[in-house]
Design goal:
alpha+beta, Rossmann fold
Length: 383
């Protein structure tokens, strides 16, 4: 379980270190940095997939994603004695991401590419580090990348060896140096990060992928766009927690019954009290469809180590928040869950179900902060 998330120099986050629990709720006003924190986790996952640079490019490149404020915000700026204004940069351009748990930690530092690079908007990986334990120390480091050189420390002799020289500034050591023999820890970390699951694009409009007919097949994991909803729900009924699925439907829509069929393209129907026939997925309201999508994600028969939900409450009536909260809390019993939301009704419902680690973001002088949070210890690797 991830215990600490650290971000520096990304969008509205100048420098932030936050604790994560088994279930963590991230909230705050619009523009406070919730999406930036969510994307930070997603960027770390993209590193393990080898897509970090492409993902940053879709966000506009490094210059568009960097912290836009001053390097430091002093007391005189906050008090209004001196205005916030541009100053000469003393440190290097840097976007840093990292996380750790009780066993391992990982951090990556990105900066500007060399002047002769033909793609000047692409960030270059300057430093990567992986270590044992919660805090980076010289003796706990077992994998290090500086510029194009990657070094690994062997488990048996604890001696350092060169694992790669001339590694592209766009390629991570997590994807290019994870060897089953000498880079077993890197490989294990890469596979863990690849197992993280994100849901932020569950559409419910008339053209949503979930409303289309589909071939029913074994689907233990709902896709990111929800296109295989019917198959995912049928898989839960077949090999997952059928009782929890029935309870989730009854809790949200009393008297309703979920019907799944594996031998036709309709796949999914919802019977409701007072109707002479069940409704097909194309007939469901936006809120009903979104709830079913969340049920399929949270009751997956193959729960991930980490699931991140970004504002799942969209299109849901407040009356559905207790049912959603129960699902989220239940899912956190099988894997870590991070929930980004601005719904106080959902937060209150989660509290009544047992509570969670709450991170309330605020904006001060353009910077995302967590005023009432005790930041865990964190050390960034030096360039």
């Amino acid at each position: 379980m991830i215990t600490t998330l650290a971000v520096s120099g990304y969008r509205s986050i100048r420098s932030l270190v936050v604790p994560l629990g088994r279930l963590t709720v991230v909230t705050g006003p619009n523009g406070s940095g919730k999406t930036s924190l969510y994307r930070s986790l997603r960027l770390l996952a993209e590193t393990a997939q080898g897509r970090l640079i492409q993902t940053l490019a879709r966000e506009g490149g490094l210059q568009s994603t960097l912290w836009a404020g001053p390097e430091t915000i002093g007391r005189s700026m906050r008090s209004g004695v001196h205005p916030v204004q541009g100053t000469v940069r003393k440190g290097p351009v840097s976007l840093k991401l990292g996380f750790c748990d009780a066993a391992f930690g990982y951090a990556i530092d990105l900066g500007l590419p060399s002047p002769d690079n033909p793609f000047p908007l692409d960030p270059a990986i300057k430093v990567e580090a992986m270590w044992t334990g919660g805090t980076l120390r010289k003796g706990s480091l077992f994998a290090e990348r500086r510029a194009s050189l990657v070094r690994l420390r062997t488990t048996q002799t604890h001696e350092w060896r060169e694992a790669a020289y001339g590694l592209s500034p766009f390629d991570s050591m997590v994807t290019h140096c994870a060897d089953p023999d000498d880079g077993a820890e890197l490989l294990a970390m890469r596979e863990r990060m690849r197992d993280w699951r994100f849901y932020d694009a569950l559409r419910t409009d008339p053209e949503a992928p979930a409303r289309r007919r589909q071939v029913m097949t074994y689907t233990p994991v709902l896709s990111g766009d929800g296109a295989d909803l019917a198959a995912a729900l049928a898989t839960i009924r077949a090999v997952g927690d059928r009782q929890a699925l029935g309870g989730a439907i009854e809790h949200a829509f009393p008297g309703s019954t979920l019907q799944t069929s594996i031998d036709d393209l309709a796949g999914l129907r919802l019977g409701q009290q007072g109707l002479l026939r069940p409704l097909g997925v194309a007939e469901l309201s936006d809120g009903t469809l979104r709830y079913l999508l969340l049920v399929a994600a949270l009751l997956s028969p193959r729960p991930p180590e980490l699931m991140v939900l970004n504002e799942p409450e969209g299109s849901l009536h407040p009356s559905l928040m207790p049912a959603l909260a129960r699902l989220v809390v239940q899912a956190s019993g099988y894997g870590q869950v991070v929930l980004v939301t601005h719904s106080e009704a959902l937060i209150q419902a989660i509290r009544s179900e047992g509570g969670a680690t709450e991170i309330r973001l605020e904006k001060s002088f353009g910077e995302t902060e967590v005023p009432d949070c005790d930041a865990p210890p964190w050390v960034w690797p030096k360039r």
